[in-house]
Amino acid sequence: MGANGLISDDPAARAEQMMWAAAISSSVSMPFAMQFFATHLAPKPDPWLIETMTSGARRSLDVFEALLAERAWVCGPTFSVVDCLLFPVVATSSKRLDGWLEGYPSLRRWHDEVARRPAVQRGMAVGMD
User: Fold this and answer.
1) Average pLDDT across the chain, whole number
2) DSSP for 22-39?
3) pTM listed for this prediction
């Protein structure tokens, strides 16, 4: 890992980290943002929009459930910056979904392991006072 321990020095591992970082930014954060719009900000509730955006958010979790069923962390055996990027979405945005992480045992295991990290606890507490 690089100097901060979160980004790999290995070119192939670093490329995978950048790929997952881009996926989280585009294909995970966006469905949850649209789900929030559909359920909380839309001027008039639209059942089709709510279901479509909620399904999109769940599909993004499905990808990480499958990945984390085979790995300890998003990019393999080591905690990385990618875990830091995904955690806030799973810890906050996904709580808007019925059942939260019910049906996602690997994602739940991963969430619980990340949440136990002291630095994550300090980071998640910022602005919560």
Assistant:
1) 92
2) HHIIIIIHHHHHHHHIII
3) 0.89
